Amino acid sequence: MTLLTKLNDDMKAAMKNRDKESLQVIRMLKASLQNEKINLGRDLTEEEELTIISREMKQRRDSLAEFEEVGRKDLAEKTKGEIAIVEKYLPAQLSEEDLREIVKNAVEQTGASSSKDFGKVMGVVMPQVKGKADGKQVNAIVKELLNQN
């Protein structure tokens, strides 16, 4: 089942259940996928779909941080609900231990020895964890491990 088919099925279910919040988020996800499909002029690959869903998740996490920073609890709660819905369409998230192991392997693979090699390590790690880990968390772990060396 393609992601678009799953979104359509979930959208129908949300309509039947009168779940306005889920319906709104699903429609936004679907619109993002369809816009990208139109821009490319072809069907999206699974990796491209994952990239788009990950982008939507990142936007919501960034919004959540901003809402919490300025004390807008109402908008923060709404955004938390949206994040929970978007998470259903992402692969299972990696644990911190798994993420650390991937980063350690990337450091060894690239021969990174200082924070100057940050870009090399991130270039190896990010394709492996795409959609499975938050970029900020990956960034923090890479910096931490490179600063230990």
TrEMBL record:
Protein's UniProt keywords contain Coiled coil: yes
Domain of life per record: Bacteria
InterPro entries: Asn/Gln_tRNA_amidoTrase-B-like, GatB_Yqey_C_2, YqeY/Aim41, YqeY/Aim41_N
Residue ranges the record marks as coiled coil: 4-50
Keywords: Coiled coil
Pfam families for this protein: YqeY (PF09424)
SUPFAM superfamilies found in the cross-reference section: GatB/YqeY motif
Range of residues in the leader sequence: none
Protein's recorded name: GatB/YqeY domain-containing protein
